[in-house]
Each structure stands twice: as C-alpha cells, then as structure tokens.
Amino acid sequence: MQILSSLLLMAATAQAHYRFSKLIVDGVAETKEWTSIRTTKNYQDDHGVTDVSSTDIRCFQMKPGTGFATVAAGGNLGFIADQTVSHPGPVQFYMARVPDGHDLNTWEAAGNVWFKAASIGAEQPPAGATNRALTWPTYHQRSVNFTVPTAVPSGDYLVRVESIALHQAQQAGGAQFYLACAQVKVTGGGTGTPGPLVAFPGVYRSGEAGLLFANYPVPTSYTPPGPPVWTSS
C-alpha cells in the first residue's frame, strides 16, 4: 500500500508540471517534439528549475539543437506545453542573436546577450469587483505566444520561454521555472538595437521581489522579474 501511495503521489506531481517542446509559427504548430526546440532536461518528468544561479536557468538543455524554425519580424511565435500551464505566474520571452560565424545549433548564449521581447504578467481585477485577486492569462493554457518585434534585426536567434510558477514562492527559492529555448531564423527584420542585454544566469537573484509571492494578505499587484520589455521606440 505504501509503494502504491508513493507511485500515485509521483504521478500526481508529474501531472502538475509541464514542458515546452513544440513551436507554433504564425498559427502553424510543429507536429513533433524537439523539432526546433532544444531538448530540455525535463523531457521525461517535466520538473522545473529552482536555482536561478545554475546554467540550467538559461535553456535547461540536455543537448545541442538540430533544427530551426523561420519567422518574419512582426510574426507570431508560440510555445506548446505537453500539459496545461498548471501553475499561476508570469510567462516571459527572451531573445538572443547568434553572432556571425557561430553555429545556431551549438551556441550557448552565455553572457549579456538576452533581451526581453515580451512579458505576460498578472491582470488586475475590474473596478468594483468583489474578488480582488490577481488573474493570470496563461494559467491553464496549452500554448503561450508573443509577437516578434518588427524592428529586431534579421538573423539567427535563440528564443527563450519561461513560465514562472509562483504557487510555492512564499520564500526564496520557491519559484519554479519551466523553460525552453527554440532555434529561430528571423527574416525581414529591422534596424533596431535590442536592449538592455542581460545574462542567464545573472539577471535574477533568489528572493528578489518578482520571485516572491505571498498568499496572505492577497496580493493586489505584481511586477515580473528581469529587465523591461524592449520596444523599438
């Protein structure tokens, strides 16, 4: 009976987690996992990353990539989870341009090379609402998406998605990151200079405000961690 209970607990825990393994380009989804997304270390059990000082916070990759997707600047990119995004919290998207002469499949994106392309945070309740709790647009969704900035220069990019689960983030180290990096070629780009550029690991600190979320009193505001979203203006 004890063994059966342990197995049921493990199964329930795995079902509560998720991984991002397929990409959507302008509404067209990949049919196979890990086509243009680098295989992540949670490909078998869907566990998240909790140590923001680990290199796993960058792409959580198990091995180099083998393929890529192509999207025009101004197009739409989405990431599909194997299960619904089952924890409340923000979803953010970062991009890093592969330097000329480097291989998209093996480039590690270390150092200050990432900029925030989009962020989906909490929504405030409408005025006069009885329930003042924040809502999360990505909660219970199977896919999350953003628009590639029109001014981003053409080239090869790593595109990083992170879903920050805050259900256990009452203390430092409790936030869980479910993340992945896609290999993408951007065409028809502009002449913008994305920034500010940040590093993974490095940009986040354990216990910072955006990685803490108290259950009581009920939070009425939330600011995601990291730099501001880059806009061409």
UniProtKB/TrEMBL annotation:
Q: What keywords tag this UniProt record?
A: Carbohydrate metabolism, Cellulose degradation, Copper, Disulfide bond, Metal-binding, Monooxygenase, Oxidoreductase, Polysaccharide degradation, Secreted, Signal
* Pfam hit, one: AA9
Q: Which InterPro entries match?
A: AA9, AA9_LPMO
Chief localisation class: secreted
Family per record: Belongs to the polysaccharide monooxygenase AA9 family.
Which reaction equation describes what this protein catalyses?
[(1->4)-beta-D-glucosyl]n+m + reduced acceptor + O2 = 4-dehydro-beta-D-glucosyl-[(1->4)-beta-D-glucosyl]n-1 + [(1->4)-beta-D-glucosyl]m + acceptor + H2O
Q: Which PANTHER family match?
A: ENDO-BETA-1,4-GLUCANASE D, PUTATIVE (AFU_ORTHOLOGUE AFUA_1G12560)-RELATED
Q: Which cofactor does it need?
A: Cu(2+)
Signal peptide coordinates: 1-16
So which domain of life are we looking at?
Eukaryota
Q: What residue stretches are annotated with the Auxiliary Activity family 9 catalytic domain?
A: 17-217
Which Gene3D superfamilies does this entry report, sorted A to Z?
A: 2.70.50.70
Keyword Metal-binding on entry? yes
- This enzyme's EC code(s): 1.14.99.56
Q: Which organism is it from?
A: Sporothrix bragantina
Query: What's the protein called, per UniProt?
Result: lytic cellulose monooxygenase (C4-dehydrogenating)
The cellular location(s) given in this protein's UniProt record come to: Secreted
